[in-house]
Amino acid sequence: MRVTAIANPKGGTGKTTTAVNLAASAALQGLRILLIDMDKQGSATQWLDHSPDSDLLVRALLGDVEPESIVVKTSVEGLELIPASVAVQSEQVTSEPGNQFLLREMLAKMAPRDWVILDAPGDLGPITIMTLTAATDVVVPVPAGAMELDEVPKIQATIAKVQARLNPGLTMAGVLLTQVRTYGQHTSVLAREVGEQLRVDFPAHQVLSTVIRDDMRFREAPAARQPLAVYDPGGKGDQDYRAALAELTDREVINVGA
Ligand SMILES: Nc1ncnc2c1ncn2[C@@H]1O[C@H](COP(=O)(O)OP(=O)(O)O)[C@@H](O)[C@H]1O
Ligand SMILES: [Mg+2]
């Protein structure tokens, strides 16, 4: 089963936006999708019109409740969600021996879906490691701002360590440039420069050719509790995530070291 982690150690890089909108676009195309909100802040959960709970996900991770029993439906047909738990980063979880493997073990108990998407928190703490350990591949969203590349070496190093020590099968699905300013047909100079730098920092083929444009509707849609594909069907954001989805499901997932 394909399990894609959306990860970047920095907050505000577009992880949740990417997780929710890729998941919704895929579900609208008829795939059975499960989104798991691994971030205790619960932004993806709220966007999909649910509330983070105190500890259901923790209990499922620790094997105390059946994971299928904590899955909820969303307003998008085919898109299921495991809501965030506020306590996910608690010592109960992080002090568990082999805690890195808890999410992978939980997924192994679940019915197969077409695609599981994991929204990771914005740090390199134990939950991000657990998320990468459960994943078959990872998407790294990077916003096209001047300061956004600082964290790139950190996520690369972390992915390489997880691959070496915990999850040898982990592959890089792609780096996704987001919040790209456009002027008519033209992309901002900054976004082009960041794109070029990413192709230096990562093997060029690991950078997706789709980019997500800056679109204020991404800031409105969470309050409306609708993914972009429902809030603004056919708009820029919907188009861009559909293109990213096509590229991510089309291309062969690439080895991190390749
Ligand atoms: N393509 C985009 N255009 C405009 N704003 C965006 C875009 N992608 C993300 N944002 C905004 O950037 C902020 C951070 O995005 P979010 O997905 O929550 O990041 P993360 O999950 O990495 O913390 C949010 O306010 C979101 O609305
Ligand atoms: Mg987030």
Radius of gyration: 17 Å
- Could you say which structural class the secondary elements and strand pairing correspond to? alpha/beta
Order of helices and strands: EHEHHEEHHEHEHEEEHEHHHE
The CATH homologous superfamily is named: P-loop containing nucleotide triphosphate hydrolases
Mean of residue pLDDT? 93
Share in β-strands: 15-25%
Low-confidence stretches: none
CATH architecture field: 3-Layer(aba) Sandwich
Alpha-carbon distance between the termini? Answer: 22 Å
Which ligands appear in the coordinates? Answer: adenosine-5'-diphosphate, magnesium ion
Structure summary, number of beta strands: 11
CATH fold field value: Rossmann fold
Large-scale geometry = globular
**Count of helical regions:** 11
The tally of structural domains comes to 1
Q: Biggest sheet, in brief?
A: 9 strands, mixed
* Helical residues, percent: 25-40%
CATH class: Alpha Beta
SSE inventory with pairings:
Layout: E1 3-6, H1 15-28, E2 33-37, H2 43-47, H3 56-61, E3 72-73, E4 79-82, H4 91-94, H5 102-108, E5 115-119, H6 126-134, E6 137-143, H7 152-165, E7 171-180, E8 182-183, E9 186-187, H8 189-201, E10 207-213, H9 217-224, H10 228-231, H11 236-250, E11 254-255
Parallel strand pairs: 1-5, 1-6, 2-4, 2-5, 6-7, 7-10
Antiparallel strand pairs: 3-4, 7-11, 8-9
Helix pairs in contact: 1-11, 5-6
The structure holds adenosine-5'-diphosphate and magnesium ion.
Description:
- The structure is a single chain.
- With 258 residues, the protein is α/β, with parallel strands linked by helices.
- It has a single domain, classed as 3-Layer(aba) Sandwich (Rossmann fold).
- It is built from eleven helices and eleven strands.
- Strands 1, 2, 3, 4, 5, 6, 7, 10 and 11 form a nine-stranded mixed β-sheet that branches.
- The longest helix has 15 residues, at 236-250.
- It is globular and about 55 Å long.
- The site of magnesium ion (MG) has 4 residues, from α1.
